[in-house]
Hints:
This is Tetratricopeptide (TPR) repeat protein. The protein has 22 helices and no strands. The protein is mostly helical.
Amino acid sequence: MKKILSSGEKIKQLRTDIGLKQENLSNEAVSKSLISMIEQGKRSLTLQAAKVIAEGLNKYYKEVGEEVTPEYLMESELDQVKKEVRKNIEHLDKAIKSSRVEEELIRNTFDKVIELVDAWKLEGEKIELQILRGNFYYNNYQYKEALKDYLDVLDQSIKSRDYGQIASMYISIGTTYQMQKMMDSAIVHFVKASDIAIANNTANKNQVLAYSLYNQILCYKKMKRYDLILSHITIFKDIKWEEQLHKVFYNQVLLIEAVTYRELKNYEKAIKIFEKLKEEKQLDFKTQFLLYKNYALLFRDKGKIENALQCIQKAFDIKEFVDLNYTPALYLHQATCYSLLGEQDKVINLLENGLKLAEMVSKKHFAIDLRFAFVELYLEKKDYFNALIHAKEAEKSINENEVKSKLQDLYGYYIEIYNKLGEVERVNEFSIQMRRKNYFASVGM
């Protein structure tokens, strides 16, 4: 973090760094005693004095290819703080979006910058940082921490009656509940977001409505509520939001519609929508990638494995243009296709490549899915020792990343492995854990 200096401290540092005395910078307009008082903070720096002092410093600094401007000397401590905070916000935003971040370094930077904005009471910057930090926690599956930041921003926004921000925070809170499998709570918050935006006619009203409906569609997709998916897609198509992002959302909603028909085994309608999207000239890379991935699943469902592999290859061809988090799942789909073709050597190689990548990205659950794929592969090969190794590695990832939704699958694999190994006590142990998990889920705990 850059040290914040007063005008006098800057002058003194610049002067002493090159061995100058105060009299070296003085003239008839700016005396040595005035420079001394400015350096001690006893007098304010005027623009006239700043020009004289900068001119005196530049006699030496320009010789080494540097220049001191009066504006730099005049810059207040508050302006320096704001500039430093802005620089750090941009750096944090870029680092988080890269998907390759040192989590501890990011956390430490957030702590230092938030400490700085608290000291200078920069409320707007504090809210911006908390939203960004909430997004960071969200992307790293730390949903409780994300909710703390989102709820704090929501509270501040309610106090200031910033209805546009309130609506946006309801969206962020809803998506966090959605990732925690709390679909009912998520939908409630998405509806609140749209209600707030409509009631107060916020500037971001259409954007909020799009986000709200889009995420409700995602919730209903996860709940397999196909009727509600399709009805909300119909409503979404009527939204008027004249921005490029709306077109991106619109295409993604069409993709969900196609996936819904695929899952309903209405392949004719699914293919019609997939083909329509393929003809879209301005389709963004993310939607293209997901289009080919899901089209591959349709072909796999229909037993057309070669067609599925062709679609997967098309997705691989544009993987450099999409978030790195999407690629590990593609290796898994490709491995599944080759498994159906009986090419086990290719399967192992693809899973290994996918696993290496999955351990690099922020969305760690892909690594768990790939571990499970290894478990299934080794169970099929009756190599229970290696199946157990991958199950234990999956458990380690589940615990480290608190992905509790994967525990049910893990216990099932443990039961199958230990049953094959004849370890009855371990089978009973995981059977009990599975029953307990089912019971607590059924009573809402």
